[in-house]
Every structure is written in structure tokens, then in C-alpha cells.
Amino acid sequence: EPHHSIMNDIKKGIQYAFQTSNNMTLAMSGSGHTAMECAVFNIVEPGESVLVAINGIWGERVAEIAERMGAKVHTLFKTPGGHFTNAEIEQALAKHKPVLFFLTHGESSAGLVHPMDGVGDICHKYNCLLLVDSVASLGAAPILMDQQNIDILYTGSQKALNAPPGTAPVSFSERACHKMFNRKTKPVSYLLDMTHLSNYWGNDGKPERIYHHTGPVSGFFALRESLAIIAEMGLENSWSHHTEIAEYLWKGLEDLGLKLFIKDKDLRLPSVTTIAIPEGYDWKELLAYIMKHHRIEFTGGLGPSVGMVLRIGLMGYNCNKANAAMVLAALEDALKQCRKSKA
């Protein structure tokens, strides 16, 4: 059927963007949170142990999702901007023996891109599955699902992929599928149940696809096009383009006397740049001034990073030198006009 070929194109496009050959690859009907919940609900059974790395808002949310469905949640914690060493991860895995470990690749609340090498290997040594959030990073910073031994990876359509929000690519390794399809209990969500969704996407080997729900058809067409664009451009080119524009922005910010929140260049998320709030300024006033006089929307922090940073997103179509230059001009003007506090 014609729509099946569209879905197959999307599957191939996600496999390329994720650098995976996993058969269990599809797009969720919903935003990134849908994929987040889908992963937790299908992999984890009530009472099982889950380890969540929290260094910003996304870990906080996964911990809450796992708690709500009855998992025993353990957390590894750093303040925003902090990252976890492989030794710290291994220590926690040995201690808590979780079935699932969650890590955010692109922590957009802090502007951090997390190192991924070796994490999957450590998880597998402890018979644990690795779940990674790449919503803010996919297409902007390198991530290689198969090579880095990631068991479940998801992203959103609306960041560096440039599609409208509402579809969320996700992929499960064979190891993840084995756990998911050998459960004693059914997943808590009917809508997000992978036994149904794998049939909907033609991933279960059955000749017939049975009605489950109506997917966001227009969103799927747009996602297919966005995946075709990234394949045409080439993943490496997309990564280097995002890095180049980010580096141009970082230099400009430092020339203005601003401090970047993530000190180590290699740990900075190219798609979302975070600036430490300049001393003596009211961050809300700066944002309001830039919005009013320059019609550019920056944001403050998110979750635990509120009051710590200003955030600038340059990704996908929006990621170019002209926009970075506009950002710098707006900031320069705001720093001059927004009165410093008397302190």
C-alpha cells in the first residue's frame, strides 16, 4: 500500500540519522515526551530498578515518569552543566543493578552535550539497557547508536531535524526488544504499547497491519522530507555546520565579555548555547528588551537551570551566520541599554 512505503522511507531515514540497523525503528505519534514515556513504559515493569542520570530537566522528567509507573528509581545527580564520568556510572550500576539506565545526550537546559563513548559497554556488563535522549542534539552533535551500543534512542522532529513538532523518532536494539517483548505484565499505556506500534509500522513480521490509532499523517510527510534533507546533506556535514556556527557565536559572545556556562568547549551542545547571566543584570529584563527591540526570542533556564543561564538556540534551518550575528548585535545593544543594578 502507498502509505506503507512512506512509513518505510521514514524508518530508513531514522536508521540513517541514528546510524543504526535496528529493525525496531519508527516514529511515535507525539512530541519527544511520547518517545520518552514509550521507552520507559515498554522496557520497565513495576518494581524493577531504574537508574536516571539527572544533570538538568530531562533526567528529572524521566525519573518522574518511571516513578509514576511503579519503578524503583535511583538517581545520579549533578547540578546543571555537570557531566558523569564512566567510573561514576559504573559504580552506580554495580550498586543499584537497574534494568535501565537513562542519560541525556543533549541537555538543552544546561547547554551540555554528554560524552557517550563506553557508556553502553558498561551498561551491558551489568545487564542493563541504555536509554538516551537526543532530542536537542540529533543532527547537531555526533551520536552513533550501534557503534556506541545505545539500546533505545529517541529524538524529536522539531529541533535540528526542522520538521513541525508532533512526531518522535525512536529505535530499540534487539537486546531492548528481548526485554520488551518478554514481559510478565502489559505496559501501563495502551497507546504507547510497542506490540501494537511495531505492527503499525510493519516491524513485527506479520503480513497484516491491524488498526491501532490514527497517526499524524501530515506530520509524517513532513518528517519524511526532513529526513531526506539530512540524508542529502550528509550527517557529518550537518554536525560540522552546527559546530561552525556555534563556534562563531561563542567567539562573538566572549568578545562581548560574556562567560559561556559550559567551560569545556567539547562539552558544549552546538544547537543550544548557554551564557552565564552577566553580573549586575536582571536576566528577565535582558530577555524582554531583546524581544521588544529586536524581535528575537532567547530563553532563560529550564527546570533546575532557571536563574543560572540565558539560552540561545541555533539549529536546523535557523542555524546560520546571519542569525548568529543578529543575536550578537541584539545582546550588545541589550547590555548597553539594560541598566546594571547598583550592587
UniProtKB/TrEMBL annotation:
Keywords: Aminotransferase, Pyridoxal phosphate, Transferase. Substrate binds at R311. It catalyses: glyoxylate + L-alanine = glycine + pyruvate; L-serine + pyruvate = 3-hydroxypyruvate + L-alanine. The keyword Iron-sulfur does not apply. GO terms for biological process: glycine biosynthetic process, by transamination of glyoxylate. Homodimer. This is Alanine--glyoxylate aminotransferase. It comes from Sinocyclocheilus grahami. The lineage of its organism: Eukaryota, Metazoa, Chordata, Craniata, Vertebrata.
